[in-house]
């Protein structure tokens, strides 16, 4: 039997588990809600182990059939030592030697990575970045995350936190960001902030992106302006990335990228206007292709690279 | 006889040539003024060839003693095809196959690179970046240039123009930059702009950095403010670089870095205030160590890597 990878994508809402073959296809999956275990590290760990065991037995698999586990986590991870340093949205996870715990309990080699880095690996190998040596992946959501592939390798940086595109400042004096900095890209285009702005623009408290898309289809000029401003901020941030890194491709993902029709033309225009001629004309701006599976598919890439 | 590298650093004012041994030491040197040949490609080429030949014969060397030529150029270079695409400050250099020309005329293997990339290679291997896997080099002068070492390799980008830190925007709406963008770092801290500003602040037309240093020593508060504002702009730009790339070191060079005493403490403070905690605490901000020789020493690193 061909060896499979077990990909695990830990999110604030749920944990997705997938069995991925060596062609990057998901051949079995399950998920666990994170919410009941948000405040107890051991309960979350227990639920995770139970989910792994039930997925394997359901598929008639033993640990010998799994070449490795790749796990993506929403926070600070030390992939070299296999330690979860800190998860901002799941309490109790501080300096947890998760690699060692899972290897001891499951007997399967395990590798940890930041969740956006796993998505980046997945998109690079099997998605929108296939065959591209140098690329940037950005995820737009409540947070704005990023991952970098440089010379066909995931680039982690000296402290394993490279790729924080969401915290590149757009302005020298700007609004305070949750990170403690000022004027960060995330502070302009993170979901919370754009929806707060939309609530004011459209005079509606609980507005969401579906509403705004509907307004756009109805030809509402305020909706046009809303997308234009958001795309301008994203384009301004990416112009700096384009000039600094001269990537061949920028892959945009996350829930908000479903609005690519309203965002991407303006993002491309701003990059063309503001970035240097050569890097602006070298770069292609595209959507992610693997959707919600990017992380678990990326786990296969990580494990195959590490083992 | 131990093989030597011939390093050539082409600048707008002069061309420096140096014989560099395999310990990164310059063991012979000469230079040619660029000015008389600024408008004729062939004359500049002739002067360069003559300088190479006279340096070799002066040192009793033959082409067999030279393992390769590394040449740094102030502009757009295609290092893979060995072509000088464009030099903004030396006219007549458009799509010149300089590698082929020099190899044919001199019979020595030749490698081309952007000048700041050569400085970066030199500082990484023999200067302020020794032993560092991931670093950023920034040169402050009329232009603000940059070079990136990632995973112990020079990172060139998809169009060979990576590292343009000087053209990262500091503000979404900012003054027009020579590159066609707006609010670029260079537009705030390039020599021309800071000296224009200084002329106003100090009510003196032809002020230079030596004057401003003198004012600082005299305790002039306007001089203190001048450096502080300049360092704040640099720090704001580098905060974005730090969050995106999480480098272990940022090496600052160029003429302006002679004022490190007035600039560096504030640059470090701004990075600490604005960048994320981990990358801000990982990075060390240091001066270049090789001074004007960084480019020709970097040529040795380039040639040794390529041959």
**The level-1 CATH class of the largest domain in chain A:** Alpha Beta
Spatial order of strands in the largest sheet of chain A: 3-2-1-4-8
CATH fold title of the largest domain in chain A = Nucleotidyltransferase, domain 5
Shape of chain A: globular
How would you describe the oligomerization state of the chains in this entry? homodimer
How many separate helices of chain A? Answer: 10
| Largest interface (CB < 8 Å) | A-B, 51 and 51 residues
Would you identify the CATH architecture of the largest domain in chain A? 2-Layer Sandwich
- Approximately how much beta-strand content do the residues of chain A carry? 15-25%
> Mean pLDDT of chain A, as a whole number?
95
Cα radius of gyration of chain A in angstroms: 20 Å
Biggest sheet statistics of chain A: 5 strands, mixed
Number of DSSP-assigned strands of chain A: 13
What does the model show?
The structure is a homodimer of 307-residue chains. The first copy, chain A, has 307 residues and is α/β, with parallel strands linked by helices. Chain A has 2 domains: 4-119 and 293-306, ATPase, nucleotide binding domain (Nucleotidyltransferase, domain 5, 2-Layer Sandwich), CATH 3.30.420.40; 130-288, Nucleotidyltransferase, domain 5, CATH 3.30.420.40. Chain A is 40% helix and 22% strand. The first copy, chain A, has 10 helices and 13 strands. Chain A has helices at residues 41-58, 98-106, 115-126, 185-189, 191-202, 209-217, 221-245, 260-274, 277-282, 294-306; strands at residues 4-10, 14-20, 26-33, 66-73, 76-78, 83-86, 94-96, 110-114, 135-140, 144-150, 153-154, 249-253, 284-287. A 5-stranded mixed beta sheet of chain A has the order 3-2-1-4-8, sandwiched between helices. In chain A, strands 11-10-9-12-13 form a 5-stranded mixed beta sheet, with helices on both faces. The first copy, chain A, has a 3-stranded antiparallel beta sheet with strand order 5-6-7. The model of chain A has no long low-confidence stretch (mean pLDDT 95). At the A-B interface, strand 10, helix 7 and helix 9 of A face strand 10, helix 7 and helix 9 of B.
């Amino acid at each position: 039997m061909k060896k499979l990878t077990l990909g695990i994508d830990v999110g604030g809402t749920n944990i997705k588990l997938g069995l991925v073959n060596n062609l990057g296809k998901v051949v079995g999956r399950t998920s666990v809600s994170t919410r009941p275990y948000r405040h107890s590290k051991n309960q979350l760990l227990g639920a995770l182990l139970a989910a792994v065991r039930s997925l394997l037995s359901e598929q008639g698999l033993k640990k010998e059939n799994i070449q490795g586990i790749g796990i993506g986590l929403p926070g600070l991870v030390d992939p070299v030592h296999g330690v979860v340093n800190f998860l901002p949205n799941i309490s109790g996870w501080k300096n947890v030697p998760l690699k060692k715990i899972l290897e001891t309990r499951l007997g399967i080699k395990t590798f940890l990575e930041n969740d956006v880095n796993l998505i980046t690996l997945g998109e690079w190998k099997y998605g929108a970045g296939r065959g591209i040596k140098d690329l940037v992946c950005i995820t737009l959501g409540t947070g704005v995350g990023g991952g970098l592939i440089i010379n066909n390798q995931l680039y982690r940086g000296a402290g394993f936190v490279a790729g924080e595109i969401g915290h590149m400042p757009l302005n020298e004096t700007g609004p305070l960001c949750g990170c403690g900095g000022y004027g960060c890209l995330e502070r302009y285009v993170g979901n919370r902030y754009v929806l707060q702005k939309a609530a004011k623009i459209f005079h509606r408290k609980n507005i969401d992106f579906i509403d705004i898309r509907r307004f756009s289809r109805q030809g509402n000029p305020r909706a046009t302006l809303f997308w234009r401003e958001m795309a301008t901020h994203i384009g301004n941030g990416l112009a700096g990335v384009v000039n600094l890194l001269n990537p061949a491709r920028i892959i945009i993902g996350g829930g908000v990228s479903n609005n690519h029709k309203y965002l991407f033309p303006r993002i491309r225009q701003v990059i063309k206007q503001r970035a240097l001629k050569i890097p602006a004309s070298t770069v292609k701006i595209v959507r992610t292709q693997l959707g919600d599976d990017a992380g678990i598919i990326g786990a296969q890439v990580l494990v195959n690279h590490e083992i």
